[in-house]
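Friendly challenge for the regulars: who can give me the structure tokens for this chain first? No prize, just bragging rights.
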Amino acid sequence: MLTAILMCQQGIPFKVSPARTQMIDELIQRKCKVIIFFPGYVIDKKLKSKAERIINTRGLYKKDIRKKIKKINPNIVICFTVEDTEICYPLPHLMRKTNFYYYNLEIYVPPHKGTSVSTYHQFMNRIDYIQNKLKEIIYVRGCCALVIQDRLRKRILSKYLIYHPNTWLIPNSYYTNHHKHGGEHKGGLIYSGSLGQDVLGSFMDNINEFQDIPITLSGWSKIIDTRVKENSNIKVVVHDLSQEEYTKFISEYDIALIWYSDKQDDNVYNIGLASGKFFKHLSLGQPVIVNNVPGLAKEVRKNKLGVVINDLSELNTAVRTINTNYEFYVQNIKKIYEKRYDYQKVSKDFFDFMVNEAKGII
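First reply, four minutes later:
Bragging rights claimed.
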């Protein structure tokens, strides 16, 4: 049986990362033992039952984490973000019998030049960025393959010096959800995901441009913008639900709102098919309203998955457009999703390649 290590040093909960959670299922189906390196204690019982072992790396030096990886001597190591590559960067060049992969979920871009940040701290942030970027490049040069979500993000990734001759395009999607969730129907729109300024900035700035459309903002943030609290159309729900509970909660809305703001951040603005919340709603058959950001807007228009708006003044019209032909959108999304986005289908060839490569079949 093969052994695969998943490096998850970014530390975000598994329930908000479809690629990581579903990858575990795909590897187990292919008779792989999965070991997870995570900076903290994992309480998810289902995840713990699937993984062979979960190693808490909190408080460990990077060199000690590398020693643990070497001691396990796995067949496969998968990194997802720069937090992983800054640890693993030398290993592909030292562990020749192990296959390394970069399943990129976040494009590592330079830090913003915030007005409140001193010149000294800007300089030090830049030095950190260069050092970590070099480690990322070194890691990728030793990898068997690179995964990114679509052609747009492949182009943006190469802009930041990350590319590979064996690159796979796999959207950050979910398995198709055939389950019908019952429960009380909730009117209005549902937004799920980060409530931070980097994602919702332009939404917050123009929050008074629409009327009479209730919007539920459901996600995570330590600080809720006061403009949200003052708007009677908006309800904020911050909670910590299981994946099943969260799916049930958001499925009770008819339409989903997807929003990305920060033009200064190439990773956020060029989200494309890396948007997990986009695919979460589509997997439930929910039409979407998205703002006009690269990649995502094109996908919605091309496949008739909902409506693209330029700003919030167009929100009322977008809602009416979807409601007028609601059943068409729902049925079309279900058909398109199973054909183009279902994670098991779109990832199959890659995981077959990964396992066969480790077995020496290729």
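The chain has a mean pLDDT of 90. The domain at 2-169 is CATH 3.40.50.2000 (Rossmann fold). Your move, everyone else.
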